[in-house]
Amino acid sequence: MAVTGSTLVLAAPPAVVPPAARTVPAAVPAAAAAPAAPARAGAGRGRGRGGALGPGPYRRLFALPGTRAFTAGNLLARLPMGMFGVSAVMMIAGQRGSYALAGAVTATGLAATALVGPWTARLIDRHGQARIALPATLVAVLGSLSLVACVRADAPAWTLFASYAATATTPNTGGMSRARWTHLLRGSPAAHHTAMSFEQAADELCFMLGPVLAAALCTAVVPEAGTLTAAALLLTGMLVFTSRRATEPPVSPAPRRGARSPLRALGPLLLPFLATGMVFGSMEVTSIAHLGALGLGSASGAVLALQAAGSCAAGLVYGTLRPRGLPLCLSVMAVMMALPWAAAAAGSLPALAGALLLAGTATAPTMVTAMSEVHARTPAGRLNEGMTLAVTALMAGIAVGSATAGLAVDHLGTTTAYLLPAAAAALALPAAAAGRSLRRPSDRSRVVPTAGARDRP
Description:
The protein is mainly alpha-helical. 67% of the residues lie in helices and 3% in strands. Helix 6 (129-152) packs antiparallel against helix 10 and helix 9 (189-220) packs antiparallel against helix 10. It is globular. The protein starts with a strand and ends in a 6-residue tail after the last strand.
């Protein structure tokens, strides 16, 4: 037994586990599922990097049965999320010669996703991931194929809008993966924090690689290659993901009349997601415009990828550290988002690249902490719906940030427009401070039983 800060950690003594008893059902929490290990000196203060604590937190995470398989499928299905928009714009603009039409079609798809996404997530919570996600994916894939066919056949413009709107049934693959981790790791907040950090890093990796892959396929092969490849990856990944039934969380019964809805439960917590989306949208548009004004438009993809790379790395590191409060994460992000403005004002491209890399390190911890609050506040049995609402707010913020940055670039110039991301991050601070009991995820349980003191306090 050890006391760390205000947390009492109970360490189970090492035990010899018979080979026949080493298979643990997927529903057992990670702290009970992992084989016991002797407690060592300083375990209460460890951060899970190995050494005194044995295997690192990510190795312990993926030692759980079935986790590697469903993660592989989920990553395949998640990569297209960063491909569809870029592929559609390049395909439609290339065939129809109109970026206005291409932008309107993708904006319609975004609006449709905001409406359909929470409804799809509610059905997944009610009836199960495999039963709902796979048919919903098939509808989305057919929408993508229809879009390709309509573009190739020079069909009327309304068919493009209808086809792309059908892709709104694409399930929130990241949310379903997070729901599985929450099911597997209940009772182990430290391991859950590590899993959420990994998921955020995976999001950043997919949104960093997706547009690059889509652009390469559309330009090096044919304009339709990006959309077709994304559809194939989505369907293949979802087939692999939904086939891993042992790790799927149980379905929840229909909510009672008068039960609290996820939207009401989350309330002002959605504003940080909206503001973070504005950070992403305004930073992307401003950076593209700024580099284009310098005659370096071809470097836009590589420079923007630095922000995602910084966020991906920070997410993995944050998973080995003790979680922080949401107001602190938002404050750090607001400060870090001012760095690109300073670099742009100095007129140095290397400085701007470095500033974007550093600014990106603040986004993943903020998203991980905010998503943990979503987990804590969402009513039982409606986790997919709650997380999809958060993602919907994020997407709405991206749209608002992109539009606002476009206006700022046209009227104020690219350097001044770089102030928008910092302002958007600061916008979420009042809501985070006003939210009721915005606690660190690790503070929800003050007594943490562990196997061999492996869990962090």
